[in-house]
Amino acid sequence: MGEHHIMINEGTEQFISSSRVIRHPQYDSWNIDNDIMLIKLSSPATLNSYVRPVSLPTRCAAAGTMCRVSGWGNTMSSVDDGDKLQCLEIPILSDSDCDYAYPGMITDAMFCAGYLEGGKDSCQVCLFTDWIASTIANY
């Protein structure tokens, strides 16, 4: 946690091992349905300006709502910044736009976000991609 550039130790990072990893019981690796996991930390994170919890929404966002995606990896526009955290604001798509873009591939456990013309989506930030909330639950 607290990572910005994955190849440089910036002094803001916290490395905490997991004590438990819980994969969704209906996860399907073939179609990536229910692609979500809980990770329990072996010790609490120290909250500061680099590490803080993400607020979870109280309901699903409507089509057209802008959301932030972030992660590390190469982008189409800049392969040199693949080791630095990338962020992008993208809209949630309607179910009909989703079905049009990915016919027969989207299940009830999924939603689509991005631009129909392509080029700006979480697939352009291809490694360790976070969606709306990447929350660490301390329980």
From TrEMBL:
Catalytic activity: Preferential cleavage: Arg-|-Xaa, Lys-|-Xaa
GO biological process: proteolysis
Database matches in Pfam families: Trypsin
Record EC number: 3.4.21.4
GO CC list: extracellular space
Peptidase S1 domain segment(s): 1-124
CDD domains on file: Tryp_SPc (cd00190)
Family annotation (InterPro entries): Peptidase_S1_PA (IPR009003), Peptidase_S1_PA_chymotrypsin (IPR043504), Serine_Proteases_S1 (IPR050127), Trypsin_dom (IPR001254)
Gene3D superfamilies: Trypsin-like serine proteases
Keywords recorded for this protein, A-Z: Disulfide bond, Hydrolase, Protease, Serine protease
GO terms assigned for molecular function: serine-type endopeptidase activity
Record-given protein name: trypsin
Source species of the chain: Albula glossodonta
